[in-house]
Amino acid sequence: MTNNPLKSNAVILHCELLDRLILMCQDGELTYTQKLETAVQLSIRSTNDLYQLIAEHGFSNSEEEILFFKSIKPLFVAEREYYQRLYHAQLFGDETAVFWKHELIRMEKLLDEYSEFSFYYHHNATENDAAWFSQGQAPLPTTLCMLPSETDPRHTSARDGWISGLLAVERYRDWLAAKYKQVESRS
Length: 187
Prior knowledge:
187 residues; 7 helices
């Protein structure tokens, strides 16, 4: 699958999303909260563009379908999930080390709860892929995601939301660690 058009087009869409996020971050006229709101909206639009790509071209085989739900779609949804977490922290957090430490511990516990799934994903295991990453399956509930599960069977598999949540929580945990260190050094 070295010359996979779905993967190539998805990579282009994801790069365009990242480019738009970078440009938006450089906009000195937006507040931090406005930047987070814009990042969420850009992520939603890019995910919808990805769904349009699937609607137009479909999947050529089961391997491509698994690739989409295990590797491609989660990158897009993880962006939205990550920026949604930052936005939530911006709205409800405070600038005390206690708050950031508590939030960091909460994310670490959440990641510990899903350590087996994390191991499966990060070690490129494949034995459950057909069951977990095939189109049309109802999403299995997870506390990794802040966002509600998608309901359109064309856009869902049993565990693609788990990967999106995992990627977002890992990234958010790393951001929290840096934020906690920054706030603690000022106290």
